[in-house]
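Form 7-S
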Amino acid sequence: MAKRHNFRNLNIYNQGIELAVKIYNLTKSWPKEEIYGLTSQVRRSSYSISSNVAEGSAKSSDKDFKRFLEISMGSAFEAETQLIIAERLGFCKGEEYETIIQELQQEQRMLRGMIEKLRNKISGNTLKTISASIAVTSTLWYFLS
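Output:
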């Protein structure tokens, strides 16, 4: 069983929260006809980043946690894409937009690092399990032959 992560202490969670707040504030000035379209979609993808980190941290295995981090990564890329579309439509521009894009890309790098760390940990545990299984099988074979 994997050690659970306290999501509130994870930088990927806290930066995800900050991004959601910034994106929510950025979208307040977007056209009202987009309230159920692009505005709603980018808001949902932005708060999905930290929500999936939190949900995944409650899972009982590193494999499950990694899966939720991958979902979070997808949400980060989704939010970035939606902001690029909004920028091209003229809904947002300038320093605030650029800062949020850079922070989203930083979040993606941090998520990728955490996913890779868990992937390596899971691979190491799998190798230990296989090695232990081979050792037990070899020992049994020795005593039974």
